[in-house]
Every structure is written in structure tokens, then in C-alpha cells.
Amino acid sequence: MSDPAILCVAITGSVPQKSDNPAVPITVAEQVASTREAFDAGATIAHCHVRGDDGTPSSDPGRFAELKAGIEAACPGMIVQLSTGGRSGAGRMRGGMIPLGPDMCSLSVGSNNFPTRVYENPPDLVDWLAGEMAAHGVVPEIECFDLSHLYQAHAMWRDGRLPTGTGGNDAGRPPYVQFVMGVRNALPVDRHAFEAMLATKRHLFGDDAPWCAAGIGAGQAVLNDWAAEAGGHLRTGLEDNVRMDRATLAPSNAALVERAAEAAVRHGRRPATPAEARTILGLRAA
């Protein structure tokens, strides 16, 4: 098992509530505790959103700062990735946490349909978010909800708009891209679509460029398996899926991480250590 797989845990998101699953962590204290359990289970990236006191999505930099500090204290070496997603705020509010200098932030480089709305990522906002990440030494994870998003990421990489590493040896390093599949009205969980995304990633960024896949709902386990088999990295967590199966709620983020780790092992791989994950992604040492 010489090929490590990075396990990313998306702990909370903007949508799931305790009414969907009581295990969804809402407060910062709950999020830190849940992340520590997931870290112990093998997760090395924490993908983070924050909520207001009433559980609604927020882009409050103060809450992000509290969560970032809590995870760094509880989970030594874990990669903290803060979300700039559009459900938590509008316009440049979405990047208010970037000056905190997390290891990574998510970055969507194009627009697409969501279940009941358009997920708007206009080019001027995308360029501003990328510029803020470059200015503060933050590496983006490119969330690709569509094939065109890979091409946009490639264009931004080629002309220098995307920072791609902080490890000191990053000349020419391609961006870290994630295929997001299973959002209703967007890219489906379909093997042909997955193969098209993977082939295009290889065409644009090369065979060795690291990548990840995320599946929504029941597609989470499917994408964990496909990514592990194809040499990618795995995202899991209660943001994307609150169930182990149709009849069983997931008891924790850690349980979903354990299932992702099992998928990696099934394909002859193992969960990456924090140090290995940082090296793979070109991040500074913890």
C-alpha cells in the first residue's frame, strides 16, 4: 500500500441540519470535536463551513477564525480548508476568511445549476477570490461541478491567476481539482461522466496531477470507490451525505471517514498521513 489516499472530511456544510441527522455539528465546539474524531479515523483535510447561532449559513470571519484555531489545536498537522462557497454569503463576503491564512480554501471557478437556484460564480468574483488566496499564501482546491470548470481552471493556471502551492518547490505545479458529482441539476453520478472528467484532467494537467472526487447523497460511497480505484483522493462527510445507507443515519463524520478508508484499502491503498498529504498538495509543513 505505497499509494496514499488523502481523505477529506466535509464536516458541516451549509445545508444539513440536526433535523436531518442529529450528528451534524453546528456550533464551533461541536465541529472541532467531530473533526477530531474524523482525524483519528484517518482524515487529513477538514473542509469547513460555519453557521450562525440559529444554524443558518455564515461567512463570518470571526467564526472561521475560532474554528480554524480549534481544529489546529485538536488535530496537529491536519489541513484546514475553509469554504468560499456561495450559500454562505454574497459577493466578496464569500472571501472574508481568506486573510486568516488557512492552508487551503475551496474555489469554484464557474457557475452551474443547483437544486433550486443558480450557483453563481461570475468571472470577476472568481478572479478576486483567487487573487486574495495568492496574496495570503492560501492554496485553492478547485471545485468542478462541470467539465467546463476544468478548462477554466486550466486557463487560470496557465496565465498565473491560481496559486498552487506553498511548499517552496511549486514552479509549474498544477492546481488540485475536485470533481463534484450528484448535485441535482448538475453533474450526475455517472461512470461515463466520471471518466470524461478524469480524462480531461489528465489531458489538461497530466497524469500525476493530484485530484479528488466528491459524491452527494448515495453517490458518496460510489465516488469514494471510483476515486480510490483510479488513483484519486476521497472526500466524505456529513456536508454531502447524512446516511450510511437508505435506512441508517451516519452516526458521525468519523463513521463516514472509516468507510472511505475502507474503500482505499479495498483498492490496495491507505489513508495518507498529514505530512504525506501536505507533500502531495504542495503545502507548507505544519
Helix/strand layout:
Blueprint: E1 4-5, E2 7-10, H1 28-40, E3 45-48, E4 50-51, E5 57-58, H2 61-74, E6 79-82, E7 104-108, E8 112-113, E9 118-119, H3 123-135, E10 139-144, H4 147-158, E11 176-181, H5 191-205, E12 211-215, H6 219-230, E13 233-236, E14 243-245, E15 248-249, H7 253-266, E16 270-271, H8 274-281
Parallel strand pairs: 1-16, 2-3, 2-13, 3-6, 6-7, 7-10, 10-11, 11-12, 12-13
Antiparallel strand pairs: 4-5, 8-9, 14-15
From N to C, what is the helix and strand string? EEHEEEHEEEEHEHEHEHEEEHEH
Stretches where pLDDT is under 50 for at least 5 consecutive residues are none
Q: Based on the coordinates given, report the CATH architecture.
A: Alpha-Beta Barrel
Approximate helicity band: 25-40%
* Number of alpha- plus pi-helical segments: 8
Indicate the mean pLDDT: 95
Give the count of structural domains. Answer: 1
Largest beta-sheet characterization:
8 strands, parallel, barrel
Q: Rg, please? A: 17 Å
Q: Count of DSSP E strands?
A: 16
What structural category do the secondary elements indicate? alpha/beta
Gap from first CA to last CA: 24 Å
Fold-level CATH name: TIM Barrel
Shape: globular
The first-level CATH class is given as Alpha Beta
Strand order of the largest sheet: 2-3-6-7-10-11-12-13
Strand content: 15-25%
CATH superfamily: Aldolase class I
